[in-house]
């Protein structure tokens, strides 16, 4: 089937597909087209995100932005709220030097993969650069090449190496924010601001069962419990439970275990091991025993 005349942009995309597929196998061409389509869709989203952020920075309302995009104010806010400058996380100012080196390596990993975004799988690979997290991962047998192989197998094959720095994915951004929160909860109030370190990020990535990083670890057969035990030497992963105050049982006066009466005068109740019996019940029991004795 002949290919119709195409505009330069579409023709360039076709050329990229054939170059990536390196053959005419239909399945290979489809995989290449899917990867390139996803990359360009991500670029389009980044372009729109950039100018929505610019519009918000100039004071443009969500109502006006939604009108220009052809959606409601609520839909525009829900789609682009993370691009709002007011929602920017003050994360970099609290990042430890070793963690920053790991984040730089994660960026390099994503760029080498030709990824549209820096995912949590890239953050996991970056943590092997240095620090406590690197030591823990090495002790449980996790290494960078294995992480990359599992990521490519689970998510997408590597593409051409990118030249621009890809943005953080939503999942990665949330992981960094959670790491900052964990650091704050593990820092005494008089020692703040908290410093976010590699072990904080490793805890978040490892203990989130739905993250890409955790899926990679599961694919590698990593002992998650072993990582948690190692982390507990450095962090408090479970917040201390507040002291439990047991309700004091209301005082009830002693009573007869048989008739249940409690309005018994002093000396009228006889106690035994775990039971008590009043004088009236003793008399009744004595009468019952006498009536059951054989006559003769």
Count of distinct strands: 2
CATH superfamily of the largest domain: Clp, N-terminal domain
Question: What's the assembly state of these chains?
Answer: single chain
| CATH secondary-structure class of the largest domain | Mainly Alpha
Query: In CATH terms, what is the architecture of the largest domain?
Result: Orthogonal Bundle
Find the structural class using helix and strand composition.
Answer: mainly alpha
Strand content: under 5%
Short description:
The chain has 296 residues and is mostly helical. Helices cover 54% and strands 3% of the residues.
Question: How would you characterize this protein structure?
Answer:
With 296 residues, this protein is mainly α. The protein has 3 domains: 11-87; 92-231, Clp, N-terminal domain (Double Clp-N motif, Orthogonal Bundle); 256-280, no CATH class. Helix content is 54%, strand content 3%. It has 13 helices and 2 strands, in the order ααααααααααααββα. It has a two-stranded antiparallel sheet with strand order 1-2. Strand 1 and strand 2 form a beta hairpin. Helix 9 (170-185) packs across helix 10 (198-207). The chain is elongated and about 115 Å long.
């Amino acid at each position: 089937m002949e290919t119709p005349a195409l505009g330069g942009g579409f023709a360039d995309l076709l050329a990229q597909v054939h170059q990536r597929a390196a053959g005419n196998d239909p399945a290979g061409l489809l995989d290449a087209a899917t990867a390139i389509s996803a990359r360009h869709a991500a670029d389009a989203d980044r372009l729109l995100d950039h100018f929505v952020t610019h519009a918000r920075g100039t004071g443009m309302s969500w109502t006006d932005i939604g009108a220009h995009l052809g959606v409601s104010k609520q839909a525009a806010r829900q789609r682009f709220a993370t691009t709002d400058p007011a929602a920017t996380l003050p994360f970099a100012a609290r990042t430890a030097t070793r963690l920053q080196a790991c984040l730089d390596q994660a960026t390099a990993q994503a760029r080498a993969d030709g990824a549209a975004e820096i995912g949590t799988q890239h953050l996991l690979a970056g943590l092997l650069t240095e620090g406590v997290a690197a030591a823990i991962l090495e002790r449980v047998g996790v290494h960078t090449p294995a992480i990359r192989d599992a990521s490519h197998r689970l998510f997408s094959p590597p593409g051409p190496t990118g030249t621009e720095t890809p943005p953080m994915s939503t999942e990665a951004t949330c992981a960094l924010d959670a790491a900052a929160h964990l650091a704050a909860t593990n820092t005494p109030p008089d020692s703040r601001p908290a410093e976010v370190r590699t072990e904080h990020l490793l805890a978040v990535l490892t203990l989130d069962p739905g993250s890409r990083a955790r899926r990679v670890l599961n694919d590698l057969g990593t002992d998650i419990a072993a990582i948690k035990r190692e982390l507990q030497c450095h962090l408090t992963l479970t917040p201390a439970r507040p002291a439990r105050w047991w309700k004091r049982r209301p005082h009830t006066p002693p009573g007869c275990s048989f008739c249940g009466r409690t309005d018994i005068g002093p000396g009228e109740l006889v106690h035994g091991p775990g039971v008590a019996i009043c004088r009236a019940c003793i008399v009744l029991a004595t009468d019952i025993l006498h009536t059951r004795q054989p006559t003769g």
